[in-house]
């Protein structure tokens, strides 16, 4: 499953605007489709971030599920 995040400002890679910073500060929610099998591990692959780097720092990461 792939979730691609697009910069809200549409500015070139490496340029960060106030809109980009505010969007990133709010956090991102991903909703996975129902019916996926249970998993033990989640991999997050960062290809490139807003400042044209390949790293990311997480302040919080939470997972919820419906009762099985």
Based on CA inertia axes, which overall geometry fits?
elongated
Average pLDDT number: 81
What's the total count of β strands?
A: 0
Low-confidence stretches: none
In total, how many domains does the architecture comprise?
A: 1
Overview of the molecule:
Helix content is 13%, strand content 0%. With 68 residues, the chain is mostly loops. The radius of gyration is 14 Å and the shape is elongated. The mean pLDDT is 81.
Question: Keywords, please?
Answer:
elongated; 68 residues
How would you briefly describe this protein structure?
The protein has one helix at residues 18-26.
How does the SSE layout of this entry go?
Elements: H1 18-26
